[in-house]
Write the C-alpha cells for this entry.
Amino acid sequence: MKRIILCISLLFFNGISLFPQLPFNGFDHQQCGLAPNPGYQDTGFYTCTRGVGYRIYFNGDLVFQKCQEYGGCKVLSMMFAEGGFPYIIESCLGSNISVYMYSTSGSWNLLGSGADRMEGIFLVNLHTGYLVTGSIFGDLILITRLSDIRQKIIMVDTVVQHDTLIRDTIFGAPFCQMDTLGFSVTHDQSVIHYKIILSQLPTNDSADMKKGDIKAFPDPAFDWLIFRKGGFPVTVSSLTLHDMTGKLVKTVQNLEGSELYIGDLKRGIYIMEVISGGTKHVSRLVKI
C-alpha cells in the first residue's frame, strides 16, 4: 500500500481534530546522545504585539523569543543533545511544526518544518535528525530531514508491499550505531512501515551544501512563509507575488526577519520573485 507523503499547512492550535488520525507507533531505535537540561526554561505564553508567543531563558537570561502576529506560537517540547545543545519543537497557529537549534554562534537556526500535527522526532547526531508529522486530515505522513547543513523534505524512493524504503544522506556519524532508521503507523488496522536507509558524509564536506537557491517553507503555505538559503536565514531586499493572470498581488521591500505573512492572499498558485544579495530567485508558491 503506497502512502502519499504531503505537507498541508493547516493547524488546529488546540490540538483537536474532527478527522481520523494515523496512530504513530514510534521509532525502531531508542534515542541516543541526549543530555539533561543545562538550564533552559520555557516561560509558556506571553502576549506580544497583535499576537501570542513564547520566551526561552537560560539561567535567567532571555536567549530566544517568538511572537506570531494575528495568531500564536508555543513550545511543544525541548531536547538537548550531547554538549547541551538545545532544540525547540514549536507549533504556531495556521502554520506547521518547526524545529530550531541553538548554534555556537549564539543564533537560533530553523532546521526544518513539517505538517501541522506532531508525531515524532529523532536526532541522529548534532547535524541531522528526522521530524515525522501528520495532517489534521489523518491519512497523510510527512518526513522532514532536520539539518543545519541542508534541509530536505523526503519523498518515497521505493515501495515494497507495505514497506516504504527511503534513501537519505546524513552529515557526520550518528549518536547510535545504526545504518537505518524505521518507524511505523497504523492505518485501517494495517501497520505501514517506513525505513530510512542512511548514507554518511563527513561534516567537513558540507561547505558546498550550504550554498544554493533561496527556499521558502512551507509549501503549500497557509499563513506564513519562512525564507532560508542552505538552511540559514537570508536577507530579502525585494519580493513580489503575481497571480496566474500576471496581476501583482503583493510587493515587499527589505523584508524583516526572513518571514512573510501571506494570510491575506486568496487560495491559489502564485509566481514569487525574490531578490537577495543582488540575485533574483523565481519560484512557484501554492497558497491553501
In short: Confidence is low (pLDDT under 50) at residues 1-19, 205-211. Residues 24-205 form one domain. The CA atoms of residues 22 and 244 lie 35 Å apart. The chain has two domains: 24-205, 212-287.
